[in-house]
Design goal:
The protein is an alpha/beta fold and 424 residues long. The protein has helices at 8-26, 28-41, 71-90, 139-144, 157-171, 188-195, 198-207, 209-232, 259-262, 286-301, 340-347, 361-364, 371-384, 404-421, and strands at 49-52, 100-102, 106-109, 116-122, 125-133, 152-155, 177-179, 184-186, 244-245, 249-250, 273-276, 306-309, 329-334, 353-356, 390-394. Strand 9 (244-245) and strand 10 form a beta hairpin. The longest helix is centred in the middle third of the chain and has 24 residues, at 209-232.
Amino acid sequence: MMKKTIETWERDRLRELAKRQLSYARSEVNQERIRQWYRHNDLQGDRPMIQLEMATFEQEIIPDRLKCTSPAARALEAQLYRNFLNLELFDDDRVVPDFYPMGYDTWFKLFDIDVHVENAEMDGHQSLGHHFIPAIEDLEEAYESGLIKPSSFGVDLERTEQRRQFVEETIGDILPVQMKMDCLYSVPTQMLVHIMSMEQMMFNMYDYPELFKKMMNQIADDTLAYYRMLEEKGLILPTTAFENVGQGTFAFTRELPGAETLKERPFTTSDVWGFMDSQETVGISPDMYEEFIYPCYKKISSQYGLLSYGCCEPVHPIWDRCVSKFENLRKVSISPWCDEEFMGEELRGSRVIYHRKPSPNFLGVDPVLNEEALREHFRATLKAARGCKLEFTQRDVYTLHNNIEKGRRYIQILREEIENCWQG
C-alpha cells in the first residue's frame, strides 16, 4: 500500500480547516438544525427544511479557496470545504458533522458492460454537454450474442483503508474518521440508458416486450445480489443521521436502527434508507411504466427500510397506480414538472414528505435575482403543500454568476415566505 505524503504546510492548513468545521459543527445553530431534521423526517417537524445544493456550481466557490498543491491534500481540502461552506455562505439547513465521514469504495457495473461517454467541448474546454455511446442496440441480438451477462460488483477494501489512514493521520485527532454509508442508491433506467440509448430503450420495449421484462427482472436480481454482498461483508451501515439520501436530503431519523443496534447484530438492507428514480421513462405512458418498469423498482425498493423516490421526473402521472404503492415511501420528489396541487392533495395528512425541487431558473439563468417572481414561485408551493410535511431542495443550478450573495438572498427570501405563508 503506497503511503500518501503531503507537505508540512499543507497538513497545517488542513488541520486549520478541520478545526473550522468542528467549530461550526458545535455551534448552537447547527445543533438546533440537527434536532429539526430529526423531527422533520420523523413527521413531527413544525417547519419546512431547506437545502441549496452547491455541487453543481462549486466550481465558482471552492477552487479559488484551495491552497494545497499535492493531489491528496487538495482533494481533502476541497472536501472539508464542502462539509461546512453551506452554513458559512448560504445559511440554509445543510448541517455540519463533528467528524469526517468516509464511505467504502464499492462498485456495481450493469451486465458487466463498461460505460462510454463522449463529452462536448466549448472554447477548447470540456462542457456539461455529453452523450453515452450505446453498447446495446437490438435487445434480441444482445441476448443471442451473450452481451447481457450477470452484473459485476465488489469493494476495494485496500483503497478504502489507504484513504482512511491518510485522513486519520492528517486530521483524525480533530475530526475523527467515521466509516459511513449513504443511502442505498438504485437507478435502473439511468444505468440502462448509459449502455443503451433512450431511443433504443423505447424501441426495445416495443419490439421485444418479454425480453425487456426479463432484462428488467435481471437488473433487480443483480441489484439484490449486490446488496447481499454488502450484507455479508458487513458494509451496510446505519443511515440515521448525516448520511445523504437522494436526491438532496439527509437521513436523520429515529425510525431506523442506529449505531447501538449495529453493535448487537449485522445490518441488512431493511435497516436503512434507499433511493430510486426513473427520469428516463417520462416518455412512456403510465400503463407502460406499470408494466415494464414498476415490477423491477418494486422488487428493489421493498428491500429498504425507508424510501425516497424521484428526481426531476413528474411523479403525478404514475402516483396512483405505482409510486403510492411503495409501502416504505417516506419522501417523494415534487419537481418543477410535477403537478404541485395534485400531489399536495394526495400527500396531505399522509406519512410521505412533499420534497419540493423548485425551478433552478431563478438562481441559474438570470444574473439578477427576480425576487418578486421567486416569492410567487415559493408561495405557490406553500399553498399547494399546506397540511403536508414539506421540504425544499434547490438542485441543478450550474452557476450563480459568481455571486454568492444571490444564493444567500435566495435562502433569506424562502425563509421569509415560510414565516409569512406556511400553514403546516
